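notes to self, project folder thing:

trying the whole complex as one job this time. last attempt i did each chain seperately and stitching them together was a nightmare. two parts in total, labels are on each line so i dont mix them up again. if this works i'll redo the older ones the same way
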Amino acid sequence: MSEKPDTGHLERWRLSELLDEPGGDPRAAAHLESCPECRREFERLSRIRMALSALGELDPPAGQWERIEARLRTRVPREATGARSGVATEGGPRPTPRGTPEEWRLPAPWTRWTAQLAAAIVLFAGGVAAGLYVTAERDGGSVAAGEEEYEDHLEALGELAELGAPRVEAGEGPLDPVAAAERLARLEALIRASSEALERSPGDPVANGLLFQLVEERDFLADRLNRSLRLVALEYR
Amino acid sequence: MEEREIVERARSGDRLAMGRLYEAHARRIYTVVRRLAGDDHLAEDLSQEAWVRAFEKLRSFRGESSFGTWMYRLATNVALNRLRRMGRRADLEGAAEMVGSPPPPTDEAVITRRALAGALDRLPPGYRKVLVLHDVEGWTHEEIARALGVAPGTSKSQLHKARARMREVLAPRGEMTSGEAGRDV
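result (full assembly):
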């Protein structure tokens, strides 16, 4: 019998064991008969165990069947492929990501991105101007030099705007930086969502394929944007 | 219509038949998954995954047991596998800390279902799995050991610890849980 030597009481694990094997340790069982404290503890454990075994059933969340059905519907139907019904075929139809590189290179509405870029230019120029004039005053130096740098900055931003002018050419056309940045943000969000979906179903061919395409498009876009900005920086120098 | 016939129809892609199977067993499946997961969101995700897999794998169901038994085993496997992937550190010998705020103390004679379920959800995942499978679902230690890939002795040891934790959490109002009787080793 397992007793704590200094207390003479049964250890909790021993009491728990007695729950499952009442006849397993006659000495422990006998101690239980004679010790009110251990008996009270044993009864408490017993009540918890009985309550656990009596825990009722739970209702599944509302609408669960509809969600399951929706997932089953994304599997290739038997009639379409002759495959087993309800079974996803390997390399089955993959959802086309929103927009291919060709699509987003289509001309963006001038009004939208022009207004956005104009706002950015105003804010940026204002900040530059404030910084330059403060510096000029602090230095007691050339306000004229600050103005020239300010105009250079405006010219660089204008060139960025020129990059946004659409040209319909496969792969190497000029880039709308605002639209590209928006597109990149959307792709990142989609990549995060796909990664989470893959964590739940690592072998899912649809999720795998989608993530691959999303990452590919994001990298392609980021690369083009980087090259465009480098070109502007070189010309600005 | 007998369940066997419904299963056959479901096997051939009959969505209505699938729906009937779902209706018949959804509560049971969700319950065991929810108790294992300890979390509503995870339980929803796991039970959904279990059902989708079940209908995909229906051809492998040979009818040696009832559909409900087969589905139950599949669902528990899905849940246990995911829990295993999610937290090796929090697994069997893992997290010592209970999760979340403690449930209110209970009265001596009454252990409410709410307090019990809350205490269960707060157990470290390793303890919760064994306690749910043994005390709630009625599995033997041999079955638990096979499912979790451990020795039966480990399952027993974890069960005792889990019960001790539950005992502490559900201590009656005003009771000192560090009393002499039933102290942990």
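what i see at first glance: Chain B touches chain A through 54 residues (CB under 8 Å).
need to look closer tmrw
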